[in-house]
Design brief:
10 helices, about 40% helix, binds guanine
């Protein structure tokens, strides 16, 4: 008999998958640099002192260095205006040595976030937040895929868990995760092939009636709502794959949007927090920076 701490689900090790992709990327970066003399460079802009953002940006920089890319961090004070931030974006757009640009979110309240994101050159938009890149994805012809959704699909791909013909439920309708993930999975194909597309996708949110009935119907359940341990065992179909995108700080603990210990007794496969989707978000950012460096070369 399983006791309360015993897990039955397969644990999907995002850290190991991220390492594998970074190893492949390092080979690509080395070859690209040898052939072109260009070292792909990510420029990150961090406004203010948000402690979590500081950690995320630092992780992104360290990861760049691990795969042989350059990284540059521009730290701006928390009272920075929209106009000043737009000035930074414009300079980085014009800088031929900068392959990718990332403005870490959230930005302080006085900044008009959408004006800033819209100002990033779409060719350097490694977050894939620019409306042009969102539109290309929606039409099934993406240049960049958004980092966290692409990370989720990579975990499924590298764990041999196809989405084609499956019911996928995404809890959360954010522009960063829920909407673009649904947009990817509903397409006829993906950069990883048609087996990692072609899903029947349902997006749930705070006004979804009978939420548990919807989530319990899913073969693959993705939680991206930012509420600690929101998904309980009774909301999960036995044997389902559960992907936890949440990173919530509760006291001195990091917990996901899924109550891991109890859901792991029901699910067939599950990602942990930390060590699940997080490492993939950083890795796909590097992959996008490589794509951006190639794209600029095409156009020069
Ligand atoms: N803040 C939380 N997630 C992200 C992300 O994927 N990109 C950026 N730029 N900021 C974030």
């Amino acid at each position: 008999m399983p006791n309360s701490t015993q897990t039955t689900a397969r644990i999907l090790d995002g850290k190991a998958i991220a390492k594998e992709i970074q190893k492949e990327l390092k080979v690509d970066v080395t070859k690209f640099t040898k052939e072109t003399g260009i070292v792909p460079k990510l420029a990150a802009v961090l406004v203010g002192e948000d402690p979590a953002s500081q950690v995320y940006v630092r992780n992104k920089q360290l990861a760049c260095e691990r795969v042989g890319m350059l990284s540059e961090l521009h730290r701006l004070p928390s009272d920075t205006t929209t106009e000043t931030l737009l000035g930074w974006v414009q300079r980085l757009n014009a800088d031929s040595a900068t392959s990718g640009i990332l403005v870490q979110l959230p930005v302080p309240k006085q900044i008009e976030e959408l004006r800033v994101l819209d100002a990033i050159d779409w060719r350097k938009d490694v977050d894939a937040f620019h409306p042009y890149n969102v539109g290309l994805l929606s039409q099934g012809r993406p240049r960049f895929l958004p980092c966290t959704p692409y990370g989720v699909v990579q975990i499924l791909y590298r764990s041999q868990l196809p989405t084609s013909g499956k019911k996928v439920c995404v809890i959360g309708r954010s522009d960063i995760v829920g909407k673009p993930l649904a947009s990817m999975l509903v397409q006829r194909t993906s950069p990883l092939g048609p087996e990692w597309a072609n899903a029947t996708v349902t997006i749930c949110h705070s006004r979804t009636p009978n939420l548990a009935d919807v989530t319990r119907d899913a073969d693959i359940l993705v939680a991206a709502i930012g509420q600690p341990e929101f998904v309980r065992a009774a909301m999960v179909k036995p044997g389902a794959t559960v992907i936890d995108v949440g990173i919530n700080r509760v006291g001195d603990r990091l917990v996901g949007d899924v109550a891991f210990a109890e859901v792991a007794q029901v699910a067939g496969a599950i990602t942990p927090v930390p060590g699940g989707v997080g490492p993939l978000t950083v890795t796909m950012l590097l992959s996008n920076t490589m794509i951006a460096a190639r794209l600029q070369l095409e156009q020069n």
